[in-house]
């Protein structure tokens, strides 16, 4: 896992949250533009994007494309959170949760998807296809998150959308790490893309069971690429988990 990136994101998010709490950025005011924040903190635009998304997940800011980030509250909402510095054991737990949640979301999406939903998924897949040979893992992360977000949106269930969006944003660094690993192995990016396509195809043809299975298989594959040590699906005992950090 890219600890340096995760640490930078944590540092910037914590500093921005502190500035908001002190009133430097008042409720109702906008944060400085991303490029200005990147210059201020001496980090990349990707780190700023992840830090502000962390703040959004905490309920501190609201972001809209083209409008920047507006401060919503001085203190974040308490509740379910995923640590950005999760070790393999914690990530394994989260991936198990994601397999159940996203499997269910995929099944709902297969029943409820609209032409607009399918178009959004296709757009993300096209972006991912264009990044297959890009040596920069960051190039595909946005499209990867967008694809999973489009599947969640196709459920037309706001609760699914909000929870899955939160999990995907918090685990963005894990997605990057998985893609870094994929780039080291010839043909692996194409196989990962095939997993996405299989999920899309099942949703497009309205196959709820197939979509559930494709989503679960994709996330289990992602967990394997992160070496999280998830047990086999038919394992009867949690004592068999290989959670070595």
UniProtKB/TrEMBL annotation:
Signal peptide: none annotated. Residues 6-74 form the HTH gntR-type domain. InterPro entries: GntR_C, TF_FadR/GntR_C, Tscrpt_reg_HTH_GntR, WH-like_DNA-bd_sf, WH_DNA-bd_sf. Coiled coil: none annotated. SUPFAM superfamilies: GntR ligand-binding domain-like (SSF48008), Winged helix' DNA-binding domain (SSF46785). GO terms for molecular function: DNA binding; DNA-binding transcription factor activity. PROSITE patterns: HTH_GNTR (PS50949). The keyword Repressor does not apply. Keywords: DNA-binding, Transcription, Transcription regulation. CDD domains: WHTH_GntR. This is GntR family transcriptional regulator. It comes from Bordetella ansorpii.
């Amino acid at each position: 896992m890219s600890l340096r990136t995760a640490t930078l994101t944590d540092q910037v998010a914590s500093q921005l949250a502190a500035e908001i709490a002190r009133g430097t950025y008042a409720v109702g005011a906008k944060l400085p533009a991303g490029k200005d924040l990147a210059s201020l903190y001496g980090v990349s635009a990707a780190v700023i994007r992840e830090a502000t998304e962390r703040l959004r997940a905490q309920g501190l800011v609201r972001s809209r494309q083209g409008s920047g980030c507006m401060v919503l509250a001085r203190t974040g909402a308490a509740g379910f959170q995923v640590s950005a510095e999760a070790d393999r054991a914690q990530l394994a737990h989260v991936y198990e949760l994601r397999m159940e949640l996203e499997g269910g979301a995929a099944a709902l999406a297969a029943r409820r998807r609209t032409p607009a939903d399918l178009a959004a998924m296709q757009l993300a897949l096209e972006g991912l296809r264009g990044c297959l040979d890009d040596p920069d893992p960051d190039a595909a992360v946005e499209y990867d998150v967008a694809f999973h977000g489009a599947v969640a949106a196709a459920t037309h269930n706001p609760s699914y959308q909000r929870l899955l969006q939160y999990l995907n944003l918090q685990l963005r660094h894990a997605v990057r790490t998985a893609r870094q690993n994929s780039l080291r192995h010839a043909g692996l990016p194409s196989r990962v893309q095939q997993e996405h396509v299989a999920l899309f195809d099942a949703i497009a043809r309205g196959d709820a069971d197939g979509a559930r299975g494709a989503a679960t298989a994709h996330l289990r594959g992602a967990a394997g690429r992160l070496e999280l040590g998830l047990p086999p699906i038919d394992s009867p005992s949690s004592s068999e988990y290989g959670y070595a950090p």
